[in-house]
Amino acid sequence: MPNILEEMGELKYLYLPRSIHDMVKMALGNLVKLETLKNFSTKHSSVTDLQGMTRLRVLSINSIEGQGCNMDTLSSSLSELRHLENLTISDKTLLASGLVLNYMNLKQLTLKIHMPKLPDEQHLSSNLTTIYLEKCRLEEDPLPILDKLPQLKEVRLWRNSFCGKRMVCSRGGFPQLQKLLFFKLKKWEEWIVEEGSMPLLQNLEICYCLKLKELPTPIQEWKERLSEGGEDYYKVQHISSLTFR
Questions:
Q1: How buried is 78 (Cβ within 10 angstroms: 0-12 exposed, 13-18 middle, 19+ buried)?
Q2: pLDDT exceeding 70 applies to what percent of the chain?
Q3: Is the pLDDT assigned to residue 57 strictly greater than 80?
Q4: Which Pfam families does the UniProt record give (predicted)?
Q5: CA separation (Å) from 60 to 118, 145, 174, 207?
Q6: How much is the pLDDT for 56?
Q7: Which of 31, 33, 66 is nearest to 47 (CA)?
Q8: Which pLDDT tens digit goes with each residue over 193-236?
Q9: Which of 33, 157, 173, 231 is most open to solvent, judged by the fewest CB atoms within 10 Å of its CB?
Q10: What is the pTM of this model?
Q11: Of 82, 87, 111, 83, which Cα lies nearest the Cα of 97?
């Protein structure tokens, strides 16, 4: 592959292949007008190339490896991206720690990396509205950190994002949360929802969490009230299909 991308200084959108030959190296430092960059890999480009892309709004990174690249250098390069709104980081082999993601305008965050603990809330953007975690293998409950993010509206905890047995939604937590999804959390057994948590929740999905013993009391009561014969059934009886799975 000829190294011609560095000459495309007016480029605003670049979608790289997900799979690139190991021998390919790309110089991207001149692409200072990029607004969207998909499938960036530090194996094929320098992580410092990102520092000049100050207009980036959407960035997905699908590999973090190579000489001189670690969480510190990645966090340092990303800190220059003042307009970044949507960030995805994926890596099958990386064991991440010390990740700092408190970028001012960051609203959507997807993490598919092995990390025993989620960054503390002070290391996450307070403007986050959506977070999607998958294959993180978190050992510590992420909810007490996430429920302190004031603008969070959607949380997806996907397959193997959490490997513990117990999660807790704190009293008054998740003040703006509207959508919460749990999918294929194989070891999850207990979920506690304290009073006043998730007051605006509209959509809850729990799929293939086979060890979860029971729904928290507030969620179970909500289900009973909305089921046929329940005291709040009149609120949903006009809906042609209402399913509790």
A1: buried
A2: 91
A3: yes
A4: LRR_14
A5: 19, 23, 26, 27
A6: 95
A7: 66
A8: 998 899 998 888 899 999 998 888 777 777 788 788 888 887 77
A9: 231
A10: 0.86
A11: 111
In whole angstroms, what is the distance from residue 73 CA to residue 51 CA? 11
Q: Which residues lie across from 154 on neighbouring strands?
A: 130, 179
Work out whether strand 86-95 and strand 108-114 pair parallel, antiparallel, or are unpaired: parallel
- Write phi, then psi, for 132 (nearest 5 degrees): -130, 120
Q: For residue 175, which amino acid is it?
A: P
CB distance 149 to 173 below 8 Å: no
Fold of 5-235: 3.80.10
Task: Using DSSP, state whether 121 is helix, strand or coil.
Answer: helix
Radius of gyration, CA atoms only, the chain: 21
3-state secondary structure of 203: strand
**Residues in a beta bridge with 111:** 89, 133
**What's the distance, Cα to Cα, between the start and end of the chain in Å?**
50
DSSP 53-83: -TT--EEEEEE--STT-SHHHHHHHHTT-TT
Strand partners for 112: 90
* CA–CA distance, 239 with 245 (Å, rounded to integer): 16
Q: Which of 175, 171, 164, 172 is nearest to 142 (CA)?
A: 164
* Phi, psi values for residue 190, rounded to 5°: -135, 135
Beta carbons within 10 angstroms of residue 230's beta carbon:
15
Q: What is the pLDDT of residue 137?
A: 93
Q: How many CB atoms lie within 10 A of CB 187?
A: 13
> Is 13's pLDDT higher than 60?
yes
Residue 53 CB: number of other CB atoms within 10 A? Answer: 24
